[in-house]
Amino acid sequence: MLTLSKIKEVKGLFMKSPWVVQLDEFRKKDFSFKSIYEDMMERHHSHTFAEYQEKEEIKTLSYSDLDIMVKKAANALSFLLSKTKKDSFVGLSLKNSPEWVAVFYGLLMAGYNPLLLDPSKKSEEINDIMKTAGAAMLISEGENKDISLDDIFNKSYEEIKPVWADKFALHTSGTTGSPKVFVYDGVSMSSQLYAAREIVLKNKMISMNDKGKRAKIIALVPFFHIFGFMGTFLWYTYLGGEIIFLKSLSSEDIKNTIINQKVSHIFAVPLIYDSVATKIVMEAKKTNSEEKLYKAIDASISLQKSFPVFGQWLAQKVIFRKINKNILGLSLIFMISGGGHIKDETLRIMNGLGYPLYQGYGMSEANIVSLDYSKKITDRIENSIGKPFEIYSYELSSEGDLKLKGDSLSIGRMIDGKLIKRDKSDFFDTLDVFDCLDNQKLSVKYRKDDIIVAENGENYSPFELEDKLSSPYLERCVVYQDSVDKKINLLLKENINTDPYQKVIILNETKKNIEKLPLGIRIDKIYITTSSLPEAIGGKIQRFKVERMIKEGKIKVEEIEKKNKEKTKSDKPISPVTKDIIDIFARVYNLNPEDISPDTQCIQDLGSTSMDYIYLVNEIADKYGIVADFEHDAICETPESFAEYIENKISS
Question: Does residue 441 sit in helix, strand or coil?
Answer without folding.
Answer: coil
